[in-house]
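Duplicate of #3305? Posting structure anyway:
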C-alpha cells in the first residue's frame, strides 16, 4: 500500500504518548507502510525519552522526531508535513488513542473520493481521576458544550464543516497551503475553510473513532476554552461567514452579564434582569445535570456538569470578547 505519514504535534505528553504509539503499532494498516512523525515543542517532561525507548523496543516501527522551536501547534504540523514522505497524511494528537482500524478507514475514505479531508468522531474520556474530570468529559460531548461540533456526538455520516485531526492527500497542501502559523488555535478549522473555498469536501465517518482525553480540571478547561474563544475571533476576522449562531451565544451571554451588572449599580431594574437571566441559565444547566446524572447513574453530574458547562461558556465568551478588545 502507499506510504502513509502520521503527523503528531507534541509538547509534554509523557502521560499519554506511549498509549498513542501503542495504538498506532496495533493498526490494521500495514506497519511497513506507516511512518510516524512527532513534531515536539521542546518537551521537558521526558516525552522524548519515552519515544526513544519505544522505538528501541519496536524497531520495526518507523518513528521520526522533528523539533518545533516555535512551540505552537500549526508550526508543529507544518514541520511534520515538510518531513513527511507519504502519499497520505493522517493527523493525530499526542493525547488521543485511535481505534485499530483508524488509519485504514481514513485512507480508504480518501482513496474512494468521499472527501478531501476524512475524519471521524471522538470518544471523549476523562483526562484525570475524580468526579470533576469525569464531569468535564461528559460536558465536552454534551450538546450544551459541544455546540455544532458534530464529531463530538453524532452517529450519522456526511459532509461537514470540520473534523477532528483529519486525513489528507499530501499534495493537498501544495495546492491550498499549509497550516496558518498566525493562529495558535483553530488552525485546523481555518485550513478546512480554505479547503472548502477551493471546492474540496470534508467528510465525517462515525465508524472512524478515536479516544480523546478531555482536560483534567476546571482550571485547565478554562484556559483551553479561553484560547478557543480568543483565536476563534481572530479567524472570524478573515472568514466572518463561518460564524454559527451557537458560537455567538457565549460572548453575547458574557457581554450581557457585564452590561447588566454595570447598569444594575445605578438602576435597580437591571439587577432584576440580571437575576432573571442567571436564574433561567442556571435552571437549564441544573436540568441538564440532573438528566445526565439519571441517564449515566452518576449523581455527581448534577453539580459537575453545570460547573464544567459554566466554565466552558464563560471562558469561551470572555476569550472572544478579549480578542475583540485587543484587535482594536
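Output from current build:
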Amino acid at each position: 500500500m502507499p506510504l502513509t505519514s502520521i503527523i503528531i504535534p507534541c509538547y509534554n505528553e509523557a502521560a499519554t504518548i506511549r498509549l498513542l504509539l501503542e495504538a498506532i503499532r496495533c493498526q490494521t494498516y500495514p506497519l511497513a507502510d506507516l511512518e510516524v512523525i512527532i513534531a515536539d515543542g521542546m518537551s521537558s517532561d521526558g516525552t522524548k525519552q519515552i519515544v526513544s525507548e519505544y522505538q528501541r523496543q519496536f524497531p520495526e516501527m518507523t518513528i521520526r522526531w522533528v523539533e518545533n522551536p516555535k512551540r505552537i501547534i500549526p508550526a508543529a504540523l507544518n514541520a511534520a508535513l515538510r518531513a513527511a514522505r507519504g502519499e497520505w497524511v493522517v493527523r493525530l494528537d499526542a493525547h488521543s488513542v485511535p481505534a485499530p482500524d483508524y488509519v485504514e478507514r481514513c485512507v480508504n475514505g480518501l482513496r474512494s473520493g468521499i472527501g478531501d479531508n476524512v475524519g471521524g468522531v471522538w470518544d471523549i474520556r476523562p483526562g484525570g481521576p475524580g468526579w470533576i474530570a469525569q464531569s468535564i468529559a461528559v460536558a465536552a460531548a454534551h450538546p450544551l458544550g459541544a455546540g455544532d461540533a458534530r464529531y463530538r456526538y453524532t452517529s450519522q455520516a456526511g459532509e461537514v464543516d470540520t473534523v477532528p485531526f483529519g486525513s489528507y492527500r499530501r499534495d493537498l497542501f501544495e495546492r491550498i497551503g499549509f497550516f496558518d502559523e498566525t493562529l495558535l488555535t483553530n488552525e485546523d478549522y481555518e485550513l478546512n475553510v480554505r479547503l472548502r473555498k477551493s471546492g474540496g469536501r470534508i467528510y465525517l465517518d462515525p465508524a472512524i473513532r478515536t479516544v480523546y482525553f478531555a482536560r483534567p480540571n476546571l482550571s485547565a478547561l478554562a484556559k483551553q476554552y479561553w484560547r478557543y474563544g480568543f483565536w476563534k475571533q481572530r479567524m472570524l476576522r478573515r472568514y466572518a461567514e463561518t460564524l454559527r449562531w451557537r458560537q455567538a451565544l457565549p460572548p453575547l451571554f458574557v457581554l450581557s452579564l457585564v452590561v447588566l451588572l454595570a447598569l444594575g449599580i445605578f438602576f435597580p431594574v437591571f439587577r432584576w434582569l440580571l437575576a432573571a437571566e442567571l436564574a433561567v441559565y442556571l435552571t437549564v444547566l441544573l436540568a441538564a445535570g440532573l438528566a445526565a446524572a439519571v441517564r449515566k447513574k452518576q449523581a455527581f453530574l448534577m453539580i459537575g456538569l453545570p460547573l464544567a458547562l459554566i466554565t466552558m461558556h464563560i471562558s469561551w465568551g470572555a476569550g472572544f470578547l478579549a480578542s475583540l478588545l485587543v484587535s482594536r
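Confirmed duplicate; merging threads. The domain at 4-216 is CATH 3.90.550.10 (Spore Coat Polysaccharide Biosynthesis Protein SpsA; Chain A). The chain has a mean pLDDT of 91.
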